[in-house]
Design brief:
By secondary structure, the protein is α+β, with helices and mostly antiparallel strands. Among the domains are: about 40 residues; about 200 residues, Penicillin binding protein transpeptidase fold (Orthogonal Bundle); about 90 residues, Sandwich (Immunoglobulin-like). A 5-stranded antiparallel β-sheet has the order 7-6-12-11-10, sandwiched between helices. Strand 10 and strand 11 form a beta hairpin. Helix 8 packs across helix 9. The termini are far apart.
C-alpha cells in the first residue's frame, strides 16, 4: 500500500529543517570557534599616554605613547554630550540599535555608489566598524578589507557595551598629525578639555577623523572649514539644530595653529613618572592654577635676571604638608639657564635663613627675650670673626632688631650659647637633610650658611612656624612610599610663635606688594645664592635665585633679589593670606623695663663669669684679621708704612711679640703700631698684664 503523499512531504520537510538547524548550529559553532580563536586585538590597541593630574584632576603634563602619539585616556562623561549626539547623528544614527553592522546604511551606501557612477558618497561604516579599523589599521580599501571590518565589528559588539565602544572611538580616532582621541584633539586645537565645547568646535571634531591629514586646521585651513560647515549643514538639514545657531557657528574662525598640550610642574611630574613606572595616571597635590601662575611669573622674571641665572619656588600648605606649587627653574626647556635641573631639590648654602631657629632655641633656654639688648660689635670666636652683610656694626640692639636686621654677630653669640650641634639636631629632627662641609662637625658658621640644604627642606622647616613649632613633612604625590610624620617639634610652641611674631614685623621690600606675611632672607657666601622664605597663618613660600653652576653673581642678595619675588609670588599665587594664630597660652610680650634684670642685657657665659669675679675678658686682636694680606707700601724711600694693630679686651699694659721677638716698649693703648722689617708671612702676638695672649698670622706685602 502506498504511503500518503502528505506524510512523505512532511518527512522531507522535517529532514530538511533538521539539516538546516544542524547547518546553522554547525555554522554557529564554527563562528564561535573562529571568534574565540581569532579575537579582536582590543588590549593591544590601547597603549595610552601617561598623564599627571593636579589635585582636582586637571591635566598637568602628559607623555606620548611609545609610538610617539598623543593618545589621552577619556571617559564618556568627560566629553560634551552635545558633541556625542552630533557625532552619532552624522556617523551612525542607529548606533544604539544595530549589532556592529548596519544593513540599512550598507544598502544606502551601495545605492549611492551605483547612482553616482561608481563614486563613493558614504561608506556605510558604523562607529563599531571604524573602531575595528582603528585597532587593526590597514592601508588597502577593498571589499575584503570591508568584510574583515564587519566581522571584527560583530566580534567587538559581542564583547563590549555600546558606551565602551563609543569610548574606544573617542580614544583612538585620528585628528591630524600624532593626535589621537578627542581629548588630545580638543587640547591641541582649542586649548581646552572636551567637557564643554562650542557648536563649531564639536562640528570640527566630528569632521576631522574622516580625513585627518587633508583637513588639518594648521595646514589645510580652508579644507577644515569646509568639512566643519558640511557637518553643520547636515545638522541643519536633519532639523537637529536651529538654522540661526548653525549660521552663527559657521561664522566662527577655525583654529589656524596647533597648541601645546599642558606642560606644568615638569620636574615634579617627571619624578612621579620615574618613581611610579607602572602607573598610567598619577595625581599630585599641586594646584594647577597656582602652578600656572607661578610658572608664568618665573618666565617673566627670567627676562630680568642676568644670563645663566635661574630661580626656584616651593609653595606648601603648612598644616597638611601638601605642596601646592613647585617651580624648579625658569623653564625646564630653558637650556641657557640649565632649566632641566630641579633647583628645589639642589643642595645650596642657605645664608641667614637658619637664623630664626637659633633665636628660637635661645628663647627656649630663656637666655633672651624679644626686647633683651645684645651687642652687635666686632667679636672673635676662637678665630671666627663674623661680619654683617654691609660690613658695618650697629652697636647695642634688641633681640627683635637683631633678627629683623639679620645681624650676624648677635646670631653667632646666641649660637655659641645654644650650641651648633643642638641646632643641627633640631634641623634634622624637622626632616632637613643638612649637609656639612668636609670634616663633619658643625661649627658656628652653620648659623650663617656654612652648611647645605635644599629649598624644599627649608620650606619644610618653616612649616613649623605655622604649625605650633612642629615641621610637617612635605609631600606632592611623587614619593615612592608614604613617609611617616615627625614625632618631635623643631621648636617649642611659645618660642616658635615669638620668632614668627618678630619676622612678621620685617618691612617689605620697596615697591613690593604690601602683604601680611612674615619672612626671612639669606645670601650665601660669595653671592652665589639669594633666598627668601615667607609665611602667613597657613602657607609657606620659599624662593631661591642664583646660577645652577654655583658661579658667584655680583650684586645678588636675598633682600634685593629674592624678597621682591617672594612678595610678588605670594600676591599672584591666588591662595590669599591667612591671619597669624594668636599667641599660645602663657606667652606675653614685655617691655625691656619689665624684664628681669638678667634678661635686660645679654651676656655670654664667659662674660657672666668674669663679671662675677670682677675680671675682664682676654685680649683679642680684632685687626688685622687672621690670614689677612696687608699692603704696606707707600712709605717713601722704599720703606713700608707701619701696621696698625687693634685690640679688644685684656688688661693693660700690652706687649707686642712679632715673629717671636718681643718689641721694646709696652703700651696701655689698645692700638699698637708695628714696623715690619720685611714683607712676607708674620705672626703677631699680644700679651696683656695677666699673661693672656692672642695671636694672628698675616702676610705683609710691600706693594
Amino acid at each position: 500500500m502506498s504511503r500518503p503523499r502528505g506524510i512523505g512531504a512532511l518527512r522531507r520537510a522535517a529532514v530538511a529543517a533538521a539539516l538546516l538547524v544542524a547547518a546553522g548550529v554547525g555554522a554557529g559553532v564554527a563562528l564561535d570557534w573562529a571568534d574565540k580563536a581569532y579575537p579582536p586585538p582590543l588590549d593591544d590597541a590601547l597603549a595610552l599616554s601617561r598623564q599627571v593630574l593636579d589635585r582636582d584632576g586637571g591635566l598637568l603634563r602628559a607623555y606620548t605613547t611609545p609610538d610617539g602619539l598623543w593618545r589621552l585616556p577619556v571617559r564618556l562623561d568627560e566629553v560634551d554630550p552635545d558633541y556625542v549626539r552630533m557625532l552619532l547623528a552624522y556617523e551612525d544614527r542607529r548606533f544604539r540599535s544595530h549589532h556592529g553592522v548596519d544593513p540599512v546604511a550598507l544598502l544606502r551606501a551601495a545605492g549611492q555608489f551605483v547612482a553616482n557612477g561608481g563614486r563613493i558618497v558614504s561608506g556605510g561604516s558604523t562607529i563599531t566598524m571604524q573602531v575595528a579599523r582603528l585597532i587593526e589599521p590597514r592601508t588597502e580599501r577593498s571589499l575584503s578589507a570591508k568584510l574583515r571590518q564587519m566581522a571584527r565589528a560583530l566580534q567587538i559588539e559581542r564583547r563590549l557595551g555600546k558606551d565602551e565602544i563609543l569610548t574606544l572611538y573617542l580614544t583612538l580616532a585620528p585628528y591630524g598629525g600624532n593626535l589621537e582621541g578627542v581629548r588630545a584633539a580638543s587640547l591641541a586645537w582649542f586649548g581646552r578639555e572636551p567637557k564643554k565645547l562650542t557648536l563649531a568646535q564639536s562640528a570640527l571634531l566630528v569632521a576631522l577623523p574622516q580625513s585627518p591629514e587633508s583637513r588639518r586646521p594648521d595646514r589645510r585651513h580652508d579644507e577644515a572649514r569646509i568639512a566643519r560647515d558640511r557637518v553643520l549643514g547636515r545638522m541643519r538639514d536633519a532639523g537637529l539644530i536651529p538654522a540661526s545657531e548653525i549660521d552663527r557657528a559657521s561664522g566662527t574662525q577655525v583654529p589656524s595653529r596647533r597648541l601645546e598640550l599642558p606642560d606644568l610642574a615638569a620636574h615634579t611630574a617627571d619624578l612621579a613618572v620615574r618613581t611610579h613606572p607602572d602607573e598610567a595616571t598619577l595625581r599630585l597635590t599641586i594646584d594647577g592654577g597656582v602652578q600656572a601662575r607661578l610658572e608664568k611669573l618665573a618666565r617673566e622674571t627670567a627676562a630680568r635676571l642676568g644670563p645663566r641665572q635661574s630661580l626656584a619656588m616651593v609653595l606648601a600648605d603648612g598644616r597638611s604638608g601638601e605642596v601646592v606649587a613647585a617651580v624648579g627653574s625658569t623653564g625646564h626647556l630653558d637650556a641657557a639657564r640649565a632649566g632641566a635641573i630641579d633647583m628645589t631639590r639642589a643642595v645650596r648654602s642657605p645664608g641667614s635663613t637658619l637664623k630664626p631657629f637659633i633665636y628660637g632655641l635661645a628663647f627656649e633656654d630663656a637666655l633672651v627675650a624679644a626686647e633683651t639688648l645684645i651687642d652687635d660689635a666686632p667679636a672673635d670666636f676662637s678665630g671666627y670673626r663674623p661680619r654683617n652683610f654691609d660690613r658695618e656694626f650697629m652697636g647695642e640692639v634688641s633681640i627683635r632688631q637683631a633678627l629683623q636686621f639679620s645681624l650676624n654677630v648677635p646670631a653667632v653669640r646666641l649660637l655659641e650659647a645654644v650650641g651648633p650641634q643642638r641646632l643641627l639636631s633640631r634641623l634634622r629632627r624637622g626632616g632637613a637633610g643638612i649637609e656639612l662641609p668636609p670634616g663633619g662637625a658643625p661649627g658656628l658658621a652653620i648659623g650663617l650658611g656654612g652648611a647645605g640644604v635644599t629649598l624644599r627642606d627649608l620650606v619644610q622647616l618653616y612649616t613649623g612656624f605655622v604649625h605650633g613649632g612642629t615641621a610637617v613633612r612635605l609631600h606632592d604625590g611623587s614619593e615612592a612610599d608614604p613617609l611617616p610624620g615627625f614625632g618631635h617639634p623643631v621648636l617649642e610652641a611659645g618660642p616658635s610663635w615669638r620668632v614668627a611674631d618678630i619676622l612678621a614685623g620685617v618691612e617689605a621690600p620697596q615697591a613690593a606688594p604690601r602683604l601680611p606675611i612674615a619672612y626671612k632672607t639669606g645670601t650665601s657666601y660669595g653671592y652665589r645664592d639669594a633666598w627668601a622664605v615667607g609665611f602667613d597663618g597657613r602657607h609657606v613660600l620659599g624662593v631661591w635665585v642664583g646660577r645652577p653652576d654655583a658661579v658667584p653673581v655680583p650684586g645678588l642678595s636675598g633682600i634685593t633679589t629674592a624678597a621682591p619675588l617672594l612678595f610678588e609670588a605670594f600676591a599672584r599665587s591666588g591662595v590669599g593670606t591667612t591671619p597669624f594664630p594668636p599667641a599660645p597660652h602663657g606667652v606675653a610680650e614685655r617691655a625691656r623695663r619689665d624684664l628681669p634684670f638678667a634678661l635686660r642685657k645679654y651676656k655670654s657665659g664667659d662674660e657672666v663669669a668674669l663679671a662675677r669675679t670682677g675680671g675682664s675678658p682676654p685680649p683679642r686682636i680684632v685687626y688685622p684679621p687672621q690670614g689677612a694680606r696687608v699692603a704696606l707700601g707707600g712709605g717713601g724711600a722704599g720703606r713700608m708704612m707701619p701696621l696698625v694693630i687693634k685690640l679688644q679686651g685684656g688688661v693693660a699694659p700690652y706687649r707686642l711679640i712679632a715673629n717671636g721677638e718681643p718689641q721694646h716698649k709696652s703700651t696701655r693703648r689698645r692700638v699698637i703700631d708695628w714696623n715690619p722689617d720685611s714683607e712676607g708671612a708674620s705672626t703677631l702676638t699680644v700679651m696683656d698684664a695677666e699673661g693672656r695672649a692672642t695671636s694672628v698670622s698675616v702676610f705683609i706685602d710691600a706693594d
